[in-house]
Amino acid sequence: MSKSALPRRSVIVGAAATVVGWNTVGRSWAVEAPAPDASAGAEAAAPGPEAATADTLARLPRLDGALVADTATLARFGGDFGHLVTAAPRAVLRPGSVRDVATLVGFARRHRIPVAMNGQSGTGEAAELESHSSYGQAGVAGGVAIDSRGLDRIIRITPGRAVVEAGVTWAQLTDAALAQGWMPPCLTDYLHLSVGGTLSVGGIGGGVQRYGFQVDTVESVDVVTGTGELVTASASANRELFEAVLGGGGQAGLIVRATLRLVRARERALVLNLFYDDLGAYLADQKKLMLERRFDLQVGDVSRNAAGTGWRFKVEGVVHYDGSAAPDRAKLVRGLRCVAAETTFTDQTAREYAYRVDAFAGFLKGAGLWSQPKPWMSLFLPASTAETFTREALALLTPEDLGAGLLLFYPFRTDVFTRPMTVMPDEPVGFHFDLLSFPFPGADHAAALRRNRRLYDRAVQLGGKRYLIGAIPDVTHAEWRRHYGTRWGRVVAAKHRFDPAGILTPGQGIHS
Fold first, then answer.
1. Which of 94, 322, 377, 456 could form a disulfide with 435 if both were Cys (CB 3.0 to 4.6 A apart)?
2. C-alpha–C-alpha distance, residues 301 and 407, integer Å
3. Residues 389-393: contacts with CB within 8 Å, 24+ apart?
């Protein structure tokens, strides 16, 4: 069959078909077409203009799952949670095993096809499954998206430890661990995110003051490098790769399995809310509470005051406990400068607190706002300039900028961050400034992106850093070098060693 088209195998866009190989001349996928409709005549079975021949078809190795290229799947993997960037792949791998990821990446390297893992976060409803990046970071235009939901096994939970595949969500792990009396030490606020996805960027939540990012609780990872090699990496074995992939934005390898540290679960959560009208008092008390370790979890947020004339600041502190050994409430608020009359306490189960965002997410979905464009921006500020930056930012932000969303704002100690790729401000204490906007329909998203860019530039001037999921346009190569600072050499070296063809996770734009 040399020099002639292979029967019924061609580049078919929109067909519900399985990919069988790569057309090395046309640089496109060859797929097994559906059986022709007899009523359509012989023409329906004819190969397309870019049909692969025996000489030009590089056959895809055997997979336990499937590589697909139907229109609906490609469209679903072309966007993300931010709904601001479209980067449609040309095929999607639905892996049936970890081996499939290694096989596909090895094949992609040989043919210079870009690849990215896509967490497809959410509670399971197809309409809401999407990458939780907000500006195309998990996108792979013209390449292959790997649906990590095919890797959703909790392999085992033992005292103090869990081994899970990358597509397992933190919600799945939390419930499985709780059933055995354990809990992940640092949880994201929204639990329906994939383990592999958050470990690729860091993974932040209310436990950050004590435990650092989620990557700081990782004991080892199984990684598929850009050469298609499956490697187990830890602090004692393959350490360069271990440090490159945790918080590394998918640049050096794709995490397919992780061994995570667990802590003893407590039965209940006492949640304390403290309110402030003065930013200086809020910052001072937030820092005081963190350094005195009064709470197990400590976050905070900024919202408009009831009159709509200014901003209000809230500390949210959580103390976990067992049985009837409730914490001393008076001691928790002693010596603070909050509006005492408005202090609230809520007592609930530890699981109820862990899932607290689900009700809010349900409201947003019901209001149609979950699927709207969301120009999120996540920054880390040095404590010495946090007040300056925040006053300037709040003078710029409007209620319309938040929409139905919120602005998280709380402190952390930089010494708890142990992974080199998660760069932090060069001070002992920093503040997380996390603009989680849910704009109403009709919002000017281009203006919001310009605002994000302006705030990011100012944060950098004041010694700030960014979190990799945010929507910040037009970040240049020089700005990425500045972001990583003295660690830039390690970033480049890891890319060259573990992804020499440069095919992994192009949507981050770090090496473009």
1. 377
2. 5
3. 389/433, 389/458, 389/459, 389/462, 389/464, 390/279, 390/302, 390/431, 390/433, 391/279, 392/458, 393/433, 393/455, 393/458
- Residue 30, classed as helix, strand or coil, is strand
Can you tell me the mean pLDDT for 129-158?
95
Beta strand pairing status for 311-321 and 268-276? antiparallel
State the Rg of the chain over Cα. Answer: 24
Query: What count of Cα atoms within 13 Å lies in the side-chain half-sphere of residue 311?
Result: 24
Nearest-angstrom CA–CA distance, 367 and 369? 6
Type of residue numbered 398: T
Q: How far apart are CA 402 and CA 285, in angstroms?
A: 25
Helix segments in 404-512, DSSP class H: 445-461, 477-484, 488-498
**Would you state the pLDDT for residue 10?**
33
- Answer whether residue 9 shows pLDDT above 70: no
DSSP per position, 70-82:
-HHHHHHTT--TT
List the end-to-end C-alpha distance of the chain, in Å, as a whole number: 41
Tens of pLDDT, residue by residue over 180-213, are 999 999 999 999 999 999 999 999 999 999 999 9
253 vs 101: CA distance, rounded Å: 11
Q: Which of 70, 28, 66, 67 is nearest to 47 (CA)?
A: 28
At 346, give phi and psi (nearest 5°). -130, 130
In this structure, the number of other CB atoms found within 10 A of the CB of residue 346 comes to: 14
Q: 465: helix, coil or strand?
A: strand
Strand order in the sheet with 230-234: 154-158, 161-165, 253-261, 218-225, 230-234
Report d(CA 108, CA 69) in Å as an integer. 15
Tell me how far apart the alpha carbons of residues 70 and 73 are, in angstroms, rounded to a whole number: 6
Which DSSP string corresponds to 132-196?
S-SSSTT--TTSEEEEGGG---EEEEETTEEEEETT-BHHHHHHHHHTTTEE-SS--SS--SBHH
The three-state secondary structure class of 262 is: coil
Cβ(165)–Cβ(255) below 8 Å: no
pTM of the complete model = 0.93
Integer CA distances (angstroms), 423 to 132, 260, 486, in order: 21, 21, 10
The Cα diameter of the chain in Å comes to 84
Report phi then psi at 76, rounded to 5. -65, -35
